């Protein structure tokens, strides 16, 4: 099972973490399964940018972003070339390192 290394984030994961998840799992699902309560206002339907992450290592091991995801990412806060929507980024066999951006464009936080 691949490992996801989560860099420290003041709100979601202050100490950082390393979690494992089966291949074929989205990064968002893996985070939520391990009590890293990343925002996902659209319920992982690829309709918002609240689950935006930056893949610091292992980007090439993930599935490719489709056009709908890329269009949404254009509106994400702190967009970088390695940005993905965690609900759309599917784990393969390799480990990944992610950073959760400090902000999202969500005006009202959801309590998922």
UniProtKB/TrEMBL annotation:
The Swiss-Prot or TrEMBL record describes its family as follows:
Belongs to the adrenodoxin/putidaredoxin family.
Q: List keywords of the entry alphabetically.
A: 2Fe-2S, Electron transport, Iron, Iron-sulfur, Metal-binding, Transport
Q: Specify the signal sequence span.
A: none
Ranges for domain 2Fe-2S ferredoxin-type: 2-104
- Species source reads Variovorax humicola
InterPro entries documented for this protein: 2Fe-2S_ferredoxin-like_sf, 2Fe-2S_ferredoxin-type, Adrenodoxin-like, Adrenodoxin_Fe-S_BS, Beta-grasp_dom_sf, Fdx_isc
Kindly indicate whether the keyword Iron belongs to this entry: yes
What's the protein here called? 2Fe-2S ferredoxin
Entry keyword annotation includes Metal-binding: yes
Cofactors named for this entry: [2Fe-2S] cluster
**Taxonomic lineage per UniProt?**
Bacteria, Pseudomonadati, Pseudomonadota, Betaproteobacteria, Burkholderiales
Q: Which Gene3D superfamilies match?
A: 3.10.20.30
């Amino acid at each position: 099972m691949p490992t996801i290394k989560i860099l420290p984030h003041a709100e979601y994961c202050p100490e950082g973490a390393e979690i494992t998840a089966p291949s074929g799992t989205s990064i968002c699902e893996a985070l939520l399964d391990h009590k890293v309560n990343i925002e996902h206002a659209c319920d992982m339907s690829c309709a918002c940018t609240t689950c935006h992450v930056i893949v610091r290592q292992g980007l090439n091991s993930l599935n490719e972003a489709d056009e709908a995801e890329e269009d949404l990412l254009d509106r994400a806060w702190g967009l970088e070339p390695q940005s993905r929507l965690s609900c759309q980024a599917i784990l393969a066999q390799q480990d990944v390192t992610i950073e959760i951006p400090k902000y999202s464009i969500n005006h009202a936080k959801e309590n998922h």
